[in-house]
Amino acid sequence: MSKQRVIIIGSGMGGLSCGVILAKNGYEVTVLEQGVQIGGCLQCFSRRGARFETGMHFIGSASEGQTLDKLLQYLEVKKDIQLSELDKNGYDVVCLDGVRYKFANGREAFVDQMAGYFPHQRQQLNQYFDLIEKVSGASSLHSLKHAESDAAINTEYQLRSINEVIDSVITDPLLAKVLVGSLPLYAAEKDKTPFSTHAFITDFYNQSAYRVVGGSDKIAESMTRTIEHYGGRVLTCSKVTRIVCDDEHATGVEVNGSDFLPTDYVISDAHPMRTLELIDSKLIRPSFRSRINAIPQTIGGFSVYMEFKDDTVPYQNYNFYGYHDDTPWDCEKYDELSWPKGYLYMHFCQEPRPVYAKAGVILSYMHMKEVEQWIGTKVGHRGKDYEAFKQRKAERLLASVENQFPGLRDHIKHYYTSTPLTYQDYTGTEAGGMYGVARDINLGAACRVPHRTKIPNVFQTGQNINSHGILGVTVGTIVTCSELLTAERIYQQIIEANRK
CA separation (Å) from 261 to 32, 38, 59, 230? Predict the structure, then answer.
């Protein structure tokens, strides 16, 4: 009996993890990547010998026996990567109006640390953390407990905004702002982003926080080897230009405008708008296309990648979120004078226990409209005006960071920049959005992207299907692969892979 064929479009975390699971379960897997480099948001790049992360700067819940640790073991990645733990007493540092607040790993340590800054809020902090644990624990997928979920809790906190829920528990307005200090990790917006998103991410990193030594592309490389070990293929420079359908289902894909590859199933890790552009079928209704095309996208980002002079910048074992005012909210609402309102500053972990950093990155929000005049140009060929624009922005951002890290500019050997245009080119996200589709409680189900399509053998995966980040995407992978395998089978395999 011949194997059933699966073609996966895109080699990001979603595409590769689907490939691993299905190849392990006897499917003939082919992953098609349009670029020269695999990985999507797992991509790293090198300049003059320095290495830089582009998307997956750090991960959580990766200590022995925690959720991501179990998933990495199941995906056969754990043996191939080395992790460097961030400071347990302050893996995240949030700076509001010049005052720094540390986030500690573990509920008890977190509450103690925050109560040190806000002694009168200990009871409220415990109530806040009760909510975090209730919401994250209510999801069977995030807790890896199949069929054990509380739909009522899930629904309630998907329909209530982060700020509304936190303000109902925390009575100190400054503490309420500190608790959302890491919101650039998911581009949260006031009165829009659901509390459930905040709860999942807070729980994920509160359990433990790590950087991948040498870069997160090690994860992509590991999954590629595993797919090939089970008889699959991962092909670069292979752009899917059409998903070919008959009246009932997909029959294959067209690659690079000419080659036809037949298949039994198609899974797209591309942005849903890009996926729909590949399909010309009456099975996809115009109303569905309109809904997907109308979904709001998360804001884009501007990045400054810094190579430091040797032995000049001590390695920072934490992530730094800096804000000019006393709030992390509304940094996406800026103008030429007020930008940047905030930033995220992190170091690259080049070896297991670095003393000095070799490279780092500063990220700040940027709307695509700022660079729309260069849409249609190619990386490296956007012209002098574009380069001047990026340099002007980079100097502004560096000056902002130097308020908290005096002398940083003097320690930079070289720096490089990227804009939403760069991100769109390398990841295919709409408008260069950092995290794909935006969640908005006011739109409800209208901003949800289904993993199924109206074509019965075409499915979607990736950060737009469940949520972004390595855990959100992998959870979405389980949902997508369950269509071919069943969730029970996957959960059982995860348990078996983690038996000692």
Answer: 11, 20, 36, 20
pTM of the model: 0.93
Sign of CA dihedral 276, 277, 281, 287: positive
Which residues 6+ apart lie within 8 Å of 368 measured at CB? 300, 420, 421, 424, 431, 432
Contacts of 158 (CB under 8 A, 6+ apart): 194, 196, 441
| Whether the predicted pLDDT of 236 surpasses 50 | yes
Task: Return the structure tokens found at 400.
Answer: 């902002």
Cα separation, 260 vs 256, in Å, equals 9
Residue 30 and residue 5 in contact, taking contact as beta carbons nearer than 8 Å: yes
State the pLDDT at residue 1. Answer: 60
CA pair distance 423, 175, nearest whole angstrom: 33
Cβ burial of 386 (10 Å; 0-12, 13-18, 19+) is: middle
Opening angle at CA 124, ends 122 and 125, nearest 5: 65
Q: At a CB cut-off of 8 Å and minimum separation 6, what does 221 contact?
A: 38, 80
Q: 100 or 54: whose pLDDT is higher?
A: 100
Which tokens go with 57?
A: 């700067």
DSSP H or E segment with residue 50: strand 50-53
Structure tokens at 270: 């591309």
- The per-residue DSSP string of 205-264 comes to HHH-EEEETT-THHHHHHHHHHHHHTT-EEESS--EEEEEE-SSSEEEEEETTTEEEE-S
Say whether 345 sits in a helix, a strand or coil: strand
CA distances to 59, 286, 289, 452 from 282, rounded to whole Å, are: 41, 9, 11, 16
pLDDT in tens, 369-416: 999 999 988 888 898 999 999 999 999 999 999 999 999 999 999 999
